[in-house]
Amino acid sequence: MRKSLVLVGLVLFIVGLVLGFYASERNCLIAFITRGYMSFWTAFEILGGLIALVGIIIALIGFIKKT
To answer: What's the pTM?
Structure first.
């Protein structure tokens, strides 16, 4: 169970990281902060960050959890 949680967490982290970096090529988060413009890619960048955060939390739970 621990290994599967760690693997799922790391996969989610990598997917979120790739998605966030791909969407950030368009400088959309900077446009959202400075002008308040929310585009399709800004939503993907925020979603990628949230997926990476969830992946880190799941991986940490897998490391800490005692079976």
So the answer is: 0.83
